[in-house]
Structures are given as C-alpha cells and as structure tokens.
Amino acid sequence: MNCRPSQVISMTATISQANLPNICGWETEISLVTNSHQPVFLNTSNLNIENINAGFACALHMHQPTIPAGINGELISNIQHMFEHPHDGDNHNAGVFAWCYSRIGEFIPDLVSQGCNPRIMLDYSGNLLWGLGQMQREDVINNLKRVTCEVQYQPYVEWMGTMWSHAVVPSTPIPDIKLHIQAWQHHFASIFGEDALKRVKGFSPPEMHLPNHPDTLFEYVKALKECGYKWLMVQEHSVENLDGSALPHDQKYIPNKLTARNSQGEIISITVLIKTQGSDTKLVAQMQPYFEAKTKNKQQIGNVNIPSLVTQIADGENGGVMMNEFPRDFVRIYQEIRDSGGNNTGTVAMNGTEYLELIEAAGINPEDYPEVQAVQQHKIWQHVNLDKVTPEAVNNAIQELKANDHQFHIDGASWTNDLSWVKGYENVLEPMNKLSAMFHAKFDKLVEQDASVTKREDYQEALLYNFLVQTSCFRYWGQGTWTDYARELYRRGEELLK
C-alpha cells in the first residue's frame, strides 16, 4: 500500500506523549504541504464537462466524541464505550457503526472493479480518527487507507477537512478556530501521509454551521485559506446575496464566492459549494442528489457553460436509512449509471474539488462566481459607513439590530473581539470560553517567542482538553451524563493550566 505516514509527524512520538493524538508540533511543515497548488483531480479525472449536463456530489460525515469514561476515567471514544456497554440504550449498534466507518473502503473497489464510476467525499472528525486508533481498529483504518492512498482509487474518493474536535464554528473561541483546523491536518497526515493531506482542499464544518458575526467569519475564512483550503461547504439558508435576498433557485447549484468583511473593514473571500436543504440522511441514503441532478442543466458563468452540481452531506452512520438503505442504493445507482452508458456523460457523480478544477480549467474565473455573504450581514452593513468601518460602528449596529429587530440573530465572536485574543480574559465566565482564554494566556507569548513550544507535552495535553470541552455533543445535552463529561474535561484542563 502506498500510504506513507507523514515523516515530520511521525517524529513526534515519545513514550510520555504516546497516548496523545497528533494534533500539533509541526505547523510550519504542515503549512508547506497544505499550501501546494498542484491540481488534485484534474490530471486523473475521467470526466469531460463538455459532455455533462449536471453532477451530484455526496459527502458522508462521521463523528464519535471523546469522553472521560474509560478505566480510571481514561479518555476513550464513545464508540469504545458503546462496545464495552452493549446493553445500554442503542449501544448494540456499535458494530454496525464501526462497519459504517469502514465500508466505503469496500464499496469503492467493488464498484470500480465492476466498471462503475463512483464518487464519495469523506468527513471524519479528529475525535473519531483518534478513537479508531485507540481501539486498534486497524481493519477500519486499513480499509480507509486503501481508497485514500492506492493510486487507482484516488480519482473516486475525496477527503474533506474539518474541525478536529467537532466544534461548531460560531461558538468556537475565535483564536481556537485555526488550531482545530491545523490539528485535523496534523492528525490526518499522521495516518494517511503527506501526499494524501496535499489532496484535501474542501472543508466540511461540523453541523454545517456558518458564523455571521463579521469578525468570526473573517477569521474563519482567513484560517481556512492560510491552511490551504480551496472551498467550503455551506448550508443554503446560512448565506444571502449582498442585497440581503435569498439565493435564486439555480444559484444554489453553481459555486458561489463567500465574502467576509470584518470590523476593521478588511475583506477576504473563499469559494463555497452549497448544500441544499432537506432530510439529509434520507436524501443521501437513497441517493436523491442523483435524481435531483437529472432535472438540472448547464448554467452560464461569464462566457462559459458549466454543469450544475447538486451537493449534499449526511451523517454516514446515524439511523436505519444510513445503516440499511445507503449500502443498497449507493451500489445500485452507480450500476444504473453504468448500464445506461452514462458513466462519463449526461448526469454523473463528481467530487467537489474535481468539479471546481474541471470548470476552472474550462475557463471559469472564481472571481466571477456570484457573491454571497453570511445571512443577516446585509442588515449590519446597512447601518455602517462602508468607507469608514470601525469595531465601534459594527458593534453599535449589532446592538441596535438586537434591540429593534426580533428577526435578527448573530452567531459568533465567542469570548473576545480584541485581536490580542487574551486581553480581558479574566472576565470570561462560560467554562468553554474561560478554558480557552486560560490556554491562550499561558501559551500564546511562549509560542510567539519559540515555535517549538507546540511540540511540548504540556502544550499538547492542554490543547487537547481545550478542544475536547468544545466538542458540540456536550453543548446539546442539557443535564445528565454528557454534561458531567464536559465538567470533568473542563476540570482536568483547568488543572493543567493553573
């Protein structure tokens, strides 16, 4: 197998740090890998967009949280806990879940051997990748390595980056956004190698959440671009046109340019592919994006006609439809496309980066994509002089809208808008934000003075607990076991940082 673990990352292993995931320590080396501008699919794709009316792109999202529930409170994956307590709740599904994490490594080679032309995008959280390693599930990892690293399968499978610990971006402390993104890149490279990481150009945000606070969104897009990402998947109702209007129907099926303006007046943008609304797991399980794509035709951007693209993502393991119907319909649809003679023409499967590379090679300029912004931002910018944008003007606009517009909502700017990130942290009360502020107060200046601090065990362990407290699962459960897990993770993190 051609899967060569990252040489720079593999150096991190020491006896004392052997139980920590690979989430930091090689930021400069990772940046060199991820900021490669070589095409990913263009030279291997067997598609020609001149022969295609529309495409469909399906992604599978996989996640299991890390919890302090092992022997003596050790950190373990929730799926390990499910295997160890099979009679609690729906824990009897643990074996099926594990198969779901592995099965694409079986489906893709089988379909290719049958003369089919499948595509799939994969989004696995860092927690889950770590948990599979902790459980020594080499069967699952090796199946994933097969379709990730073996050259004959690379045209069919695209990995998407994500936040390491499944933190939802709007409520993630701003200075931790880039750390999560980099941590996932470290971890992925340590398993699948630098060459595989070089091919990860799309980003899948947990829960499809998009921050609409100007500063949070700006820092998010800036971090994505600095980490080498070419595009971001967004939910259709989380963006609007610059005049505040909803996207016209057809605009959802072509790339858009997401523009972010911060409270200093700086502007940055990134390409987005738009996930359409609907019952996600049912849509993907039954391959509905294929049937929707069959109703679409080419659209014009500039002087170039390009295929429309139906984009959809769903949990890859949750619920009966993903467990039972997806294996049936995923295989059946690609056989149907093959048998109709349409492997390369008409309506076809495409992965996100493949689609963007093909249309840009045909002459599309990403600057010509329709321009969108995060939903509700039109209201903010109506209240601000765009020739003189200041943090005070933006904050006043937000406060005025909160007071007078019951339909206005703002998500983001978690614990400070101060770009030093640390000033004022003493007043932070919410535990998640407080732990983050403590982490940055302790380490930011040290890292600034000596970048190798991120290789130290105390830094890695503190960063890990900071991430784990931010896992979205702990924010949705109110009271009970999950809240107790979060409190214990916070307690350990605080102890490390005192």
UniProtKB/TrEMBL annotation:
CDD domains: GH57N_like_1 (cd10798). The keyword Hydrolase applies. InterPro entries: GH57_Enzymes, Glyco_hydro/deAcase_b/a-brl. One of its GO terms (molecular function) is hydrolase activity. One of its GO terms (biological process) is carbohydrate metabolic process. Keywords: Hydrolase. This is Glycosyl hydrolase family 57. It comes from Brunnivagina elsteri CCALA 953.
